[in-house]
Amino acid sequence: MSSASRQELEDQIRRRTQAAARLLTPVQAANLVNGVAAAEREAESWEEIKASEQLERDLHERYPEYFEAAEAIRDGEARADLPRFRAWGREQRRLAREADGWLAGNAARIRTIGGVLLGAALLAKPFDLISSEVFGAAAAVAAALLVLGTQLLKKRRSPLWNGVFADPKMASAYVWGCASRAAATALIRTREPDAGAWETNMLQIEAMWDRRTCRSELFAEEDYSGIRYTSA
To answer: Half-sphere exposure of 150 toward its Cβ, with a 13 Å CA cutoff?
Structure first.
């Protein structure tokens, strides 16, 4: 394939990928990311998971130019779209705080303040910057904050603390990866005369992309519908 043809192919896949991924809502993106974990848990055996992965590898080997383009698109678009996923991550934490209350929501911050206070006291004491009484009081307050923060962390109940957008970089890469592979597969269907022989392989990729429209029962407690920031 010439460089011009390769660029034309990448441009087509990029347009299809952008048209699909940029319209995803937070709920759909979460469905997609959770879908891979659900697929692994739903598999009856490790051999079934390996067979599924092999179907995709075989298709990649048959049409490498399509999936090399898809990977390049995934990397570039995932980086460019990271601000949107970070915003969704902030919204996810907001929902978790609202569900668990102010104290539990700020448990990590309380523990951090305790650690900073203790560190400052330990640094100041050898240089006689604070008296023994102040050091003792600061150490006691710091210890209390550390214990309180730790106990409050244990009281967190919302599953959104560790939800999909807790790692926005991973979530963005996965969403754009699924979208670009699905776009490449759709293009194979229309351009390649022997595409019909690879129907099972293509359905494998398309099925994963279709998971964006359904919520897995395994993650039913994770509700992302309250995320307000949805623009690309």
So the answer is: 8
Q: What per-residue confidence (pLDDT) applies to 107? A: 84
User: What's the CA gap between 201 and 159, in Å, rounded?
Assistant: 34
Relative orientation angle of helices 107-124 and 132-154, to the nearest 10 degrees: 160
Give the DSSP letter string of 154-219. HT---GGGGSGGGSHHHHHHHHHHHHHHHHHHHHHHHH-TTGGGGHHHHHHHHHHHHGGGS--GGG
- What are the tokens at 91? 């919204």
Record the tokens describing residue 107, joined without a space. 């448990």
Of 30, 73, 81, 17, nearest to 231 by C-alpha is 81
Residue partners of 193: CB distance under 8 A and separation at least 6: none
In this prediction, the residues of the chain whose per-residue pLDDT falls under 70 are: 1-4, 44, 229-232
Query: By the 8 A CB rule, do 165 and 88 touch?
Result: yes
Helix ranges (DSSP H) in 101-167: 102-105, 107-124, 132-154
CA proximity to 60, closest of 50, 68, 52: 68
pTM check: above 0.90: no
